[in-house]
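In response to a reviewer's request, we include the raw inputs and outputs for one of the modeled complexes. The two entities were modeled together in a single run.
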Amino acid sequence: MAKKLSEIGEFGLIDEVIAPRFKDLLGEDITGIGDDCAVMPFTDDEVQIVTTDLLIEEIHFLRAKISAFQLGFKALAVNLSDIAGMGGTPTGTFLSVAFPKNLGVAWIEKFMEGYRSLSEKENVPLLGGDTTNTPDNIVINVAVTGRMKKSEVKRRSHARPGDYVAVPDNLGDSPGGLQYILDGLPEDKFSESLLKQHLTPYPKVSEGRWLAKKEQVHAMMDVSDGVGSDLHHIVKASNVAAELYLEKTPMSDNLREASKKYGWNAEELAYSGGEDYTLLLTVDPEAFEKLAGDFSKTFGRPLQVIGKIIEGEPGLKYLRNGKPLDGPGKGFSHF
Amino acid sequence: MAKKLSEIGEFGLIDEVIAPRFKDLLGEDITGIGDDCAVMPFTDDEVQIVTTDLLIEEIHFLRAKISAFQLGFKALAVNLSDIAGMGGTPTGTFLSVAFPKNLGVAWIEKFMEGYRSLSEKENVPLLGGDTTNTPDNIVINVAVTGRMKKSEVKRRSHARPGDYVAVPDNLGDSPGGLQYILDGLPEDKFSESLLKQHLTPYPKVSEGRWLAKKEQVHAMMDVSDGVGSDLHHIVKASNVAAELYLEKTPMSDNLREASKKYGWNAEELAYSGGEDYTLLLTVDPEAFEKLAGDFSKTFGRPLQVIGKIIEGEPGLKYLRNGKPLDGPGKGFSHF
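The model returned the following structure tokens for the whole complex.
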């Protein structure tokens, strides 16, 4: 029987159907499919980076569960997060939208206000796009261009055995917020910060740019599918393995308390929930203490070690207080 | 009552809701919304250009009426046509797709083959994108980056009174092909070339690059909505008017014959049908003869004069043998 898309999944589609067909067209020094952004040479010492993300109503968001302002903000945020993952500076954004004909203009105005709000904060202009109508579900595609020094580009493939694996933020708040939404839970004293992290995640562009300038940061990417899935991309691209120390998982008190109240597996949310839109990096262990101190002075919060890169077949080992355990899931696939 | 999107239309959405919100974020020397591509400075003498187009099943194509290969080819073609409209060279493409879960992998493979076929012909790599699923209609967004000399960028706003308005191809073949499809007409001796032009339009990237190097070409853009609509963008951006000579409309014999057979208004198709994906340019009249001769020697077909830029309030006047008439419609809007 003819194979269906659901049988090969999102990564199968990219690795088996799409990427192999274009390898021979790649010019020298070009990074195509396989990192947060494509990297294209431009001048001798600068590169252009590009990323794009597609959001479909009912798959990525529910119109009744996110305000137009929040959706506009988030549509840009998830793309700027990819620019942050490389350590680049965004230069322009491109917004394609398909709206149903009967959508109110006021809704669209609020959507654009949310998009503008983050554009202004990060000082990046909307430079183009496309508008059309759609028979039913809203469709949003954002593409972002950026630029950066060639020598500062941070890739998934540069992790080295011995590196600490670190993140600059708590994990799991966004998936915690999503639980409130999906389960229709009433707001309580824990929900506000979790919902905010889910509905208007702030992309870590400044942090990414700062970290990109540090040679001791070896690999970096943004956390979009959850560390369990995203770190898997790093170990695969770098041909190393990693161990994760579950007792060190940085989680907010609100996530812990809400998890207790509702019986959620907080670690599962932290590692597999996705959409935290923070950074995931591997750092030279000798240099970590000084780097973390400087980071903390600059950004007012710590860089937190959650694991270590080790030699071995690409894969993740979850440990609790030194003892191996079967880990939470490896992130979700859109198919 | 709250205003609906259908009341302000596509151009109202862009001009009233989107563009004004971002004007103050535009840096110096940046062209944002309002031309075929955004233009961003990069080095002292080179600029980066970017365009993006969104295609939605049932709005822009019917899955039963276009093969997967043709759709992949065309999705890229319509974007490369925007690069051609500026006179630039494409450097990378970015493909976001949403497919239903039950779509066959073989269909997707053929789609990618069509996309690759044009990528290879124009030597431009696919460098990234996004893949996700969709509850129903296929969604395709393509973004293309390009580069070119700053001094060669051709804009909509540079038309001058006295300029000839010219095109390098017949008009109306693509909308003629669309008529065959929409009316379910049987293939005949006229249909093949019309259907080919509709289903796999070839973007005029080489022609655009050649024309961009000529100072005597003042304004240029690609023809996507039909000359009647697209020339309106040029006269508006240049603050001039234009007259069009209907007796000079370049049309293929197949379009004329099919129009006779089926009672179509061939001129209406030529000016308002859209999707011809050729170029529309205005040229210094003194220089036209030599330019057209060189063009013909290089590309094996003539540059054809279809009208003239004149002074006046932005607008189009349709003439037949010197006599004014009410013109065909002014192109279509997606809303």
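As requested, we also summarize the result in words. Residues 28-152 of chain A form a domain with the 60s Ribosomal Protein L30; Chain: A; fold (CATH 3.30.1330.10). Chain A touches chain B through 80 residues (CB under 8 Å).
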